[in-house]
Amino acid sequence: MHPNKIFRETDETRSKEFMAEQSFGMFIVQSSIPLISHVPFIFDPKTSYCETHLVRSNPIARKLAEEEVSAVLVVQGPQSYISPDWYGIDDQVPTWNYVAVHAKGRLSRLPQDKLFEVLDRQSGYFEDRLAPKPAWTMDKLHEETKVRLMRQIVPVRFDISEFQSTWKLGQNKPDDARLGAARGVREAQLNEHAQSLSDLMENLPFIDKS
């Protein structure tokens, strides 16, 4: 997380909502070398845990076969380079604005007979976002396909004990400078996140400026 506290003065509720919205992140588990896995997950902001699944051959899944482990779930949001020219004031330097949440906790493997429930919840969660498209459901799989695929993956639960977040949106700059940078981000369109980041920089809807 960014060491400047002004970028971390965000309500935990918003960080949880952000995690639920993104629903994709990166597990990091310490071993002889760090183990990293990119995963979709489902997370209800009213709870303190999320569910996902891992391929059985994944090094993290192999480690979980022996014991639960400490882990960090990194969830990234919109980000972009910020040119000093966009501030409209002198003596500035380049920087990078971004949103990121780190959730720390314990990762454990669920009993294998819970796998179908986890997969059904996951697919249902994401299919609901596609409405009015008719939802894809697990019962559309042929039974032999379902059995074969479910042998290859394991259900996982992540119990979260701490949330840390950075919302680096230029709130350390004068308002006119921050808004100038927001316009620069929107006009440059350096990546697909530009519009979302620009909106956050302009409105600071989740930052307490008092």
Short descriptors:
about 210 residues, alpha+beta, 6 helices, about 30% helix, elongated
Average pLDDT, all residues: 92
CA-atom Rg in angstroms: 20 Å
Helical segment count: 6
Classification by helices and strands: alpha+beta
- Total beta strand runs: 7
Distance between the termini: 22 Å
* Residue share in β-strands: 25-35%
Helicity, as a percent range: 25-40%
Q: Give start-end ranges of low-pLDDT stretches.
A: none
- Strand order, main sheet: write it out: 2-1-5-6-7-4-3
Shape: elongated
| Topology pattern, helix = H, strand = E | HEEEEHEEHHEHH
Largest sheet: 7 strands, antiparallel
Structure, explained:
Helices cover 30% and strands 31% of the residues. Strands 2-1-5-6-7-4-3 form a 7-stranded antiparallel beta sheet. The chain is of the alpha+beta class and 210 residues long. The mean pLDDT is 92.
Question: What can be said about this structure in brief?
Answer:
The protein is an alpha+beta fold. Helices cover 30% and strands 31% of the residues.
Question: Layout of SSEs?
Answer:
Elements: H1 12-22, E1 24-29, E2 35-40, E3 42-43, E4 49-55, H2 59-64, E5 69-82, E6 95-109, H3 115-128, H4 143-151, E7 153-168, H5 175-188, H6 194-203
Antiparallel strand pairs: 1-2, 1-5, 3-4, 4-7, 5-6, 6-7
